Amino acid sequence: MTTQDNAVLLFRNTMRITDGHLESFRGAIARAVAFAERHGPQLMVQTFVDEERMLAHSFQLYRDSDAVRTHWKLADPYIREVMEHCRVERFEVFGEPDADVADGVRSALGEQGALTFSPRIAGFVRFATAPRASGLSGGSGPDTP
Predict the structure, then answer these.
(1) N or C: more exposed end of the chain, with fewer CB within 10 A?
(2) What is this structure's pTM?
(3) Partners of 88 in the β-ladder
(4) What is the pLDDT along the chain (145 residues), one digit of tens a residue?
(5) What is the 3-state secondary structure (H, E, C) of 102-145?
(6) 8 A C-beta contact, residue 12 and residue 58
(7) CB–CB of 97/37 below 8 Å?
(8) CA distance 47 to 39
(9) β-pairing, 114-118 with 86-94?
(10) Please, are residues 47 and 2 in contact by the beta-carbon 8 Å criterion?
(11) CA dist 2 to 63, 116, 129, 135, Å?
């Protein structure tokens, strides 16, 4: 990764899907993620749905606070559409955003759900840019998924 490791931010958003809105929520999330993949600054976006509990979990990885600000500017209409079908139950920020982003998260969440900030202790990010050819079949070395 070409950024300062200390600047990396991981957001986890736990959303309660409104009864009767599951399919609309899925569609709004699909459109938002497709937009982020094409235009957003995120390094990673993954969203998971627990239909039994009507919860969704969204993870977003950012290089730094500037990337979060860029996301907010670009994605506001998509965020609003998603929020028509859910409410935030919990929002977790892993890493240390600058004061502006921390205040923005607090302001956006309001009284809607629990908010936590967890400073980074250690870690790394590894994203493959192309599949690695290992020449091994069924091995347990570093090229084994």
Answers:
(1) C
(2) 0.82
(3) 15
(4) 444 567 999 999 999 999 999 999 999 999 999 999 999 999 999 999 999 999 999 999 999 999 999 999 999 899 999 999 999 999 999 999 999 999 999 999 988 889 999 999 998 878 766 555 544 444 444 444 4
(5) HHHHHHHHCCCCEEEEECCCCCCCCCCCCCCCCCCCCCCCCCCC
(6) yes
(7) no
(8) 17
(9) parallel
(10) no
(11) 9, 27, 13, 29
Label residues 44-75 b or e (16+ Cβ within 10 Å = b).
Answer: ebebebeeeebbbebbbbbbbbebbbbbeeeb
Which residue reads 């409104």 in tokens? 18
How many residues in total does the chain contain? 145
